[in-house]
User: Which sequence fits this backbone?
């Protein structure tokens, strides 16, 4: 027995030295662990993926103010025939409301008077031309008659334009028409309501292009510039990215939040984005992509302020702390802790992590 004990001493001593030099992270043998545990775990190699630096901002989608129309009532009166609601899509010329008003009657009376003046001026001009032809009138008289006809016709045309703009269509009613095609953002009036002239009744907007108003912290202002291409994501469409451009950087800094607002132009041909939606804005910081080590997000386990992965070494595995650079699109980019090609637990990595902690 002493001979065998002596033979094992170098082996025991070597094992002791190796253990002293190993990391303190616990290990478990894959062979010594229940098969059911590892059947649920998948493994993946640490790989390199391209990563771009970007600044993440929060903002709100709003209507492009240059494409917004505020529809006001041209006359006072009582409203009826309102069927349009907020959110409805309309085309130019759509009837928004009918206004019953005494002002329309006054307009029609004035119109008839002006039409009569044009007829009288026309007859007088024609008569003067005939008299000039017969030698019974002068060219001056004909010229003066012609001037009166021109003024009468211009006054009538101006009155007709007013009636067309205001939608005067009968002796007592006017029709309020949509001046543009687009979407109804807000309806401020209702049927049977009496309104004064100049009352804002509807707000319309073409939502084919919208704005994103985002906040930039004071410390990040130097990292943005007008004309920069950005990527926008909305909570309403989490799997879709929209390309936009920073169109304006506002000069005022909010004294309380220490943020400055920027405006982003965003094409919206399918009208998926609506005013009031929340938006995340990613501003790319460098044109060149850099490659970094990365693993799937589910491979990284967070505990007590530290991040770990489970590394497989042959027939054993251990937990390894890692330093994370950034997480994006389901991947975690790692700047320290693992090497290219190492095998780490992927699906159900937490099961092994918990076993190592026992």
Assistant:
């Amino acid at each position: 027995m002493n001979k065998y004990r002596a033979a094992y001493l170098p082996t025991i001593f070597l094992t002791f030295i190796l253990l002293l030099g190993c990391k303190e992270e616990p290990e478990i043998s894959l062979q010594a662990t229940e098969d059911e545990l590892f059947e649920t775990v998948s493994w993946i190699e640490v790989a390199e993926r391209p990563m771009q630096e970007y600044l993440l901002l929060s903002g709100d989608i709003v209507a492009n103010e240059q494409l917004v129309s505020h529809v006001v009532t041209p006359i006072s009166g009582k409203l009826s025939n309102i069927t349009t609601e907020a959110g409805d899509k309309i085309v130019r010329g759509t009837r928004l409301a009918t206004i019953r008003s005494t002002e329309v009657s006054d307009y029609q009376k004035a119109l008839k008077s002006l039409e009569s003046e044009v007829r009288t001026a026309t007859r007088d001009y024609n008569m003067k031309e005939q008299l000039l032809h017969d030698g019974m009138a002068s060219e001056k008289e004909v010229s003066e008659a012609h001037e009166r006809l021109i003024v009468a016709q211009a006054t009538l045309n101006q009155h007709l334009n007013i009636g067309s703009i205001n939608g005067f269509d009968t002796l007592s009613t006017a029709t309020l028409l949509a001046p543009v095609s687009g979407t109804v953002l807000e309806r401020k009036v209702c049927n049977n309501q009496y309104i004064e002239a100049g009352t804002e009744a509807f707000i319309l907007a073409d939502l084919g292009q919208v704005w994103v108003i985002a906040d930039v912290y004071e410390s990040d202002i130097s990292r943005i510039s007008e004309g920069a291409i950005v990527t926008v994501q909305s909570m309403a469409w989490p799997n879709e990215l929209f390309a936009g451009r920073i169109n304006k950087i506002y000069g005022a800094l909010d004294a309380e939040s220490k943020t400055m607002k920027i405006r982003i132009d965003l094409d919206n041909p399918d009208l998926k984005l609506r005013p009031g939606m929340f938006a995340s804005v990613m501003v790319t910081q460098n044109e060149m992509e850099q490659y970094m080590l990365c693993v799937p997000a589910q491979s990284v386990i967070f505990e007590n302020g530290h991040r770990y992965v489970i590394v497989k070494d042959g027939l054993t595995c251990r937990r390894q702390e890692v330093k994370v650079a950034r997480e994006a699109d389901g991947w975690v980019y790692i700047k320290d802790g693992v090497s290219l090609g190492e095998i780490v637990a992927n699906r159900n990595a937490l099961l092994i992590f918990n076993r190592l902690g026992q």
User: Anything to note?
Assistant: The CA atoms of residues 67 and 91 lie 14 Å apart.
